[in-house]
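Recall the central idea of this unit: under ordinary conditions, the amino acid sequence of a chain determines the structure it adopts. In this exercise we apply that idea directly, starting from the sequence alone.
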Amino acid sequence: MDRDAVLNQLRKSWLITLGLSPLAVFLGVQIVSSNKSQGFEGGQAVFLVSMLGVFLALILVLSATSIFLNLYPGIRQERTYSFFAWYLVPLLLCIIFITASDSADDLDMWMMVLPIVLPFFAIHTWFYIQFIKTMDKAKKEIENTTEQTQ
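Accordingly, the structure predicted from this sequence is:
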């Protein structure tokens, strides 16, 4: 698979993640916190938490620019390196988010972290699986053309 096709697929994956992840986080925090927003102050607090969640989702999406390391054939062809290019930096940021929190043992903190982190990783994983399928398909096509020429 040529570099331009890989670039187009990675760019499309990243841009869709950039659009969908903050939206899903905003809606997820609104749904999880819907019972807490009964008054004016509660509604403001939920909105602020939603905006914080969108900001953190954008940080995760920006950290996912490491997927463009897959433009290098050595990384793209090695499944482990490709996995790390997709997930290492976002996972490290999630660990930092969680460990930097003073209330890492509190259940309420987890109820706020999961709606922020899970949508990003769900979308990101879906595009990673699509990328791997495309790379496997391209690899099989190359193998078929080399078998036909021999």
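The helical segments are 3-32, 40-63, 73-77, 79-100, 107-149.
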